[in-house]
Design a protein that fits this description.
EC number: 2.6.1.42
Keywords: Amino-acid biosynthesis, Aminotransferase, Branched-chain amino acid biosynthesis, Pyridoxal phosphate, Transferase
Order of helices and strands: HEEEEHEEEHHEEEHEEEEHEHEEEHE
Number of strands: 19
InterPro entries: Aminotrans_IV, Aminotrans_IV_CS, Aminotransferase-like, B_amino_transII, BCAT-like_C, BCAT-like_N, BCAT_family
CATH topology of the largest domain: D-amino Acid Aminotransferase, Chain A, domain 2
GO molecular function: branched-chain-amino-acid transaminase activity
Oligomer: single chain
Protein name: Branched-chain-amino-acid aminotransferase
Strand content: 25-35%
Length: 408
């Protein structure tokens, strides 16, 4: 993505500041100490799990001091953190986070799905919020060690996982409106069931809104920062009172589609040549570069190129359904036109928490777009979900997307 001139200048200034910070101790997983909980919690049954409502027994904590650098990290029993009420994260929202998942494969070993992408995004988010830097390799090493300590919490059922939530929060004290030169890293684990109560293969409804905006060029929409999410709670409450599940966020005078709730959006549109366009908005600075999003695009291109065949996407004469993956902007006016012409075959959202959710209804200006009705996921969405879960859960090897969790 091209960096605007003013952003390039800010990054240069920030890099100069970071040179001074880099002279202090970096995060070092080899200095990890482990204090195990004396009382372990019972493991709930997989079928009772919802997303993010139960935490495992332990967490990782490390702190950054501008004079010393990163402290020796510690795995210790999960518990409250001590924060000064004037901490930067409480006063000015200087917190960033990531979301990733661990799975148990057929070999009985835990694994992570494309964690390098999560670590790179965590570093970019922290840089955008002017938080102290850290080695992403060391954060990943700490995540692995925490998973090993709490591996009994990884669900064994397909479609379930152990959700990993690393958070970096600014802890500078005082009310001055400045960047935080202190920080706390905290890593938590949560056994995860379906994100939506409608089940593992959910269908959601969305209401397109233009009165409120999720992200804008030059903002923080492409980063996982806490302040991106809380402003969406009120609009979500409003659309839910109107009978919809999520907000379909729009941007610009031409009402470009951006994201659905906290998910990346995909639309499958029939082409005149018999192929299918798989459309998703481009990474223009307003769109979160989702790991699942990237995986869908990569698998679609591999399918069309003949490098793999996605399940269920063969015709009766064994020809591949031709998918033309495109990252391009599209508007609500185009969505209405495609719907009127019967060209929208599927719409779905994608993200780490949900994997893939079918969009069954799109509200716009008092009407609902006419979309095909599917039992659960449509064939395109289901093909991607099946293949991604096979890779995540170790039933299939694809490139280097699955990383075994091993000790230091």
């Amino acid at each position: 993505m091209r960096i605007p001139p003013n952003m390039a200048m800010w990054k240069a200034v920030g890099n100069g500041i970071l040179e001074g910070i880099s002279r202090v101790a970096d995060l070092d997983a080899s200095k990890l100490t482990i204090t195990l909980s004396k009382t372990l919690k019972p493991i709930p049954k997989d079928e009772t799990l919802l997303f993010g409502n139960i935490m495992s027994d332990h967490m990782v904590v490390a702190e950054f001091d501008p004079e010393i650098g990163w402290s020796s990290p510690e795995i210790k029993p999960l518990g409250p953190l001590s924060l000064d009420p004037t901490s930067s994260c409480l006063q000015y929202g200087t917190s960033v986070f990531e979301g990733m998942k661990a799975y148990i494969g057929p070999d009985g070993e835990p694994r992570l799905f494309r964690p390098d992408m999560n670590m790179a995004r965590l570093a970019r988010s922290a840089e955008r919020m002017a938080l102290p830097p850290f080695s992403t390799d060391q954060v990943l090493a700490l995540i692995k060690q925490l998973i090993i300590v709490d591996r009994r919490w990884i669900p064994l059922s397909s479609g379930y996982s152990l959700y990993v939530r690393p958070v970096v929060m600014g802890t500078r004290t005082g009310l001055s409106v400045v960047a935080s030169d202190r920080a706390t890293l905290c890593i938590m684990l949560s056994p995860a069931g379906p994100y939506f109560r409608s089940g593992a293969k959910p269908t959601v409804s969305v209401l397109a809104v233009s009165e409120t905006i999720r992200a804008w060029p030059g903002g923080t929409g492409e980063h996982k920062v806490g302040l991106n999410y809380s402003p969406g709670f009120l609009p979500l409450r409003v659309v839910q009172k109107q009978g919809y599940d999520l907000v379909l966020w729009l941007w610009g005078d031409d009402m470009k589609v951006t994201e659905a709730g906290a998910m990346n959006v995909f639309v499958v549109v029939a082409r005149d040549d018999g192929g299918l366009d798989l459309l998703t908005p481009p990474l223009d600075g307003t769109i979160l570069p989702g790991v699942t999003r990237d995986s869908i695009l990569a698998l679609a291109k591999a399918h069309t190129a003949g490098e793999t065949t996605l399940p269920g996407l063969e015709t009766q004469d064994s020809q591949r359904v031709r998918l033309h993956a495109q990252e391009r902007a599209f508007t609500m006016a185009e969505m209405v036109q495609w719907s009127t012409e019967g060209k929208i075959l599927e719409a779905f959202g994608a993200g780490t928490a949900v994997v893939i959710a079918s969009i069954g209804k799109i509200g716009w200006k008092g009407k609902d777009l006419d979309l095909p009705v599917h039992e659960g996921l449509g064939p395109i969405a289901n093909a991607f979900r099946t293949r991604i879960l096979d890779i995540q859960e170790g039933r299939e090897v694809w490139k280097n997307w699955s990383l075994l969790v091993t000790k230091l």
